[in-house]
Design goal:
It is built from eleven helices and ten strands. With 273 residues, it is an alpha/beta fold. It is globular and about 45 Å long.
Amino acid sequence: MNYRHSFHAGNFADLVKHALVLWLLKDRQSRGPVTVLDTHAGAGLYDLSGDAQRSREAEAGVARLMTAEARPPLIEALAAEVAALNPQGGVRFYPGSPVLTARALRPEDSYRGFELNPPVQALLTEALAAWPNATGRAGDGYEEAVRAARGVKAPLVLIDPPFERPDDYVRSAETAAAVVGADPTACVAIWTPLKDLETFDGFIRRLEQAGLSRVLVAEARLRPLNNPMKMNGCAMTVVNAPSGAEAAAAEICGWTVQALGDAGGRAEVWRAG
């Protein structure tokens, strides 16, 4: 697999994903102990002085986040996490979902992140070493998340593949359906890029055909979807979205598009099915 998240870490799509993940985790914690399952965990923590300097995506994402004024509460919550990892100032380190989640865990909560690439899995284990209730494990996250969901109650499941494989959209939808089939109280958050409407509409149709309910779709389009070779935006699709998720997603996507998007950008939050 050629994809390296370190190349894209801290871009606008990370901001959307991680701000909403933080909110979903806090909401889940208000209901009791939480188990977070992460299908494509990655390295856990990213040094933006490496690959990210070449892509310059972090400059247009987290770097602008940290210098922005009048940040709304859910964006401010993510900015506070980034600041905590950079006590000397600046934005050298950016947390992936594993470290972001691990930092927010209570003693009764747990995190399991799965990673298929052995060198990256080793980095994940190292990044989570400070948190005994957060673990990085080797394996196919699609399969492992479904297996793990059968043994826990009401998990929060994150599905965030690189979308380099032609079956990632299909497997993401199938995994979401299988997780909810294993535990109807599970909350599943799926990140997808937005390049063209045909591909994304096909993904949403698969979720609908699987009979999934309470599906919330939050889109942050930084520019019109007229160039399928570029990531023009991203979406977070939440299955079994809790009360309040629509307002949270609107706040996050609205700020991202307004602060980081082009003139033709727009944010949309809607219900599927």
